[in-house]
Please model this.
Amino acid sequence: MTPIIEMNSLSKWYSQVMAVNDITLSLGVGVTGLLGPNGAGKTTLMRLITGLLKPDKGEIKVFGEHIWNNYSLNQRIGYCPDHDAFYELMTGFQFVESLAMLNGYTRSEAEELTMGVLKTVDMLDNKDKKIGAYSKGMRQRIKLAQALLHDPDLILLDEPLSGMDPIGRHNTIKLIEQLEQQGKSVIVSSHILHEIEAMTDNILLINYGRILAEGNIHEIRELIDRHPHNVYINCDKPRLLASVLVQYDDIVSTNISKEDGALIVETTRPDDLYSRLPAIILENDIRVENLHSPDDNLQAVFKYLVG
Amino acid sequence: MPIHDQSYRHWEGELKSHSFRWWVIAYEGLKVILRRKLFIILILTPAIIQFFVFGGLIYGFNTFGAMANINQITPDFFFRFCFQQTFFILLICVFGGSGIIANDLKSNALQLYFSKPLTRSDYIIGKVATILVMLECITAIPCILLFIEYAVLSQDLTFLRENYWLIGSIIAYSLVLNLPITFLTLALSSITKSYRYSAIILVGIVLGTTVISKLFQIIFRGADWANFIMYWYNINVIGKGLFGMKDEFSEWQWSLAIMLVLTIVCFLIMFRKIKGVEIVK
Model:
């Protein structure tokens, strides 16, 4: 069986920076989340898959064919870039229609397809407004529309939820689910874990151009949970709070920050800590100004995975 | 949860013809430029008025000139019409052409274009066609119409029999007038995201070469070779060669070679700069 995307020792560098570093993997049908912090190489990997960039080393095949210089293959690929790529004076309809014609459709076919895809992304009401007047969320939806209009088999969405309002996010996530049900391959990139979590279970973790982990998102979640968490608590009685918390088994250490006097609690079960904190705060009359966990993000998992 | 075959499916869709993708680029480019009313009123209209003036001259000669025994309309007449359009050619390139790639670079449009089934050649041909269509509309097409007007108004077929080759000269000269400046405009447009810089450099090159040439002539005491530095001098000399007129200074083949080299260099710059993704090293 031939997977939809095959990468073999794929590398791409910009001068001395390795944007993609010796990646070997294959991807099939369904939604795959490409997860990594900013600058991890997600966009470069997507551009390599669409044939916008030429690999410096290794090879990449899409639908069993080399993608570089294979322009007809782009007819089966839809790409939604992360950066805006618009003529501000065009209307959303004109923009999508002109890109439809680049796919080889006649004007009347392009018009019909454009109307259909604008309805899909819920932009019909705003189709005749100039793109310059669109909100960030509308721009995202128009970019999404141009990626979907020719009914591609492989869809690459680079940070598609960025700048969208909650309704827009919900609709886009639904749309991605529908694409999966239609048997399409969708690769979605994000640097936010819960965004990807809402769309798929299947993820690729990328950092410094390398794939750190691939597989089920719940396994990654477990990794996060097994990994001791630091929780920062800014409060008026940090020493008192520390003395109470240290009695629990899951608390590994407590420290007072020299910079702002915040209490730094290291715990192996962050969920337990969060659930017991309100009662402790109320009992001891502690005023909490701020509570956050810098570990509850991808960077901490990456650090953990890299060692 | 649906279970899918993890391998790729053989696509059953129809692969669309690739032949006229470039026309989409050209058509969209023309639409953007011709939407500007000031551009049409101040640049295209005067260029077309010039056509009517020359058309009036032909009509006047046929009606009154023959009686007054004035000189015949010669190849020089058609050459002069084409060469006098150079002012408008420059204006079209500056105000219509300088942003043609720069705006795509500025708006990141290239990555979208090249994520579609569009080749770099399609894109370049489309952009060349955008400018060339406008320039041919004020050079070759009106000049051929003038030729036809004179042939039709002539009493006999003598003019047509003796000057049929002028059609070829008009087409060839319009290409000499239009192609190098089109490629120069596009090359400059591809090296910057600002159409203003691109326009300023274009004017600087086209007019600046005249200044440099004059300076060299002063320094080297009237050296004839310094004329070849001048952009419009070469265009003029090639025109005289193509219309069978003698030029006292030089061989037109040299000027043609210079324009050819300029066009190739501009094409190479453009080809190198136009990429789906700009890589900053």
About this structure: The interface with chain B takes residues 1-4, 14-15, 28-30, 47, 50-53, 63-64, 71-77, 79, 81, 83-89, 98-99, 101-105, 146, 151, 153, 180-181, 183 of chain A (CB under 8 Å). The mean pLDDT of chain A is 87.
